Amino acid sequence: MSRTARLRLFGVSGVGLAGLLVWALTGLPAFGTFNGAYGWILIDVAGKERHVTNVVAAVVFDYRGFDTLGEEFILFAAVMGVAMLLREARDGRDRPRDEVRSDAVQAVGLALAGPTVVVGLYLVAHGYLTPGGGFQGGVAVAAGLALLYAAGRYRSYRAASPHSLVELGEGTGAGAYASVGVAALLAGGLYLQNVVQLGTKGFLNSGGTIPILNTAVGLEVAAATVLLFHEFLEEVMYPE
Amino acid sequence: MIPLQVVVLLLTALGGLAVVTSRDPLRQTIVSGLYGLTLIVLFVVFQAPDVALSALVASTVAFPFVVLSALAKLRRRPPR
Q1: What is the pLDDT of residues A81-139, one digit of tens each?
Q2: What is the ipTM of this complex?
Q3: Minimal CA–CA distance to A206: which of A78, A58, A43?
Q4: Does a structural domain hold residue A109?
Q5: How far is C-alpha A218 from the geometric centre of its chain's CA atoms?
Q6: B70 touches chain A (CB under 8 A)
């Protein structure tokens, strides 16, 4: 296509897009208005029905718990796919190449690794009381471990996350989520229905099955992210 | 809309622009991490802490990690 033809095409489509955008923007509700009836209802009833203080957790692990089951298996399948594509047989005897020589990078990485893991565990444990939850906390735990690698301690990083244990964690997390649903069926409820005692609102012991599902997701996400890091780091650390 | 929200929205727009205008993939990865950080501040300012935490771990840790390791792998391969 010639330059003038391309410019003409750009001009026409640019004006068209601008027109559509202005049309859409003028039709928007006023800033701060929220027309979601479902949201207003949940803010009212979630605390009373499920005894949790974080309504988001009640939606993710209870009202829409079945969607989260699907999301968890999407992550599971995606990481398994990466592992199958990138996995190669390595004897692991040849020493990996740690190229971090800067004292500052090593010190900051090592100083942040522990606290990041603790923050991640806190986010998982308190996901249904304060903002956070299994997904956020799980990735934070994995990030804390990855900081060990960033600090030039690839060996400590691998020692802190043994491959077989991480794989076991991933499978257990995914399996536990599905099993809680089956347990609800056996208890005479619907799949993933909250059948456990709800406990006292605002305490760790509250929410019925929500904390169990939350922990399962935390385990699954942390393990899946670490596995993902393992596969990519092996490619970097052991160049052919 | 309070002034803080206006400032954060402008910062996010600038961040997005910075990501698409950086040409070097390595630089672009770092810039996109910083852009993620402006998005996180945006979510906090607009009172969505759960989303902010998800974005924090995904856009400043997991995503740059995967892209950077791929770049490191490519850089080491001898040019053909």
Answers
A1: 998 888 776 655 566 777 777 889 899 999 999 999 999 999 999 999 999 889 999 99
A2: 0.84
A3: A58
A4: yes
A5: 8
A6: yes
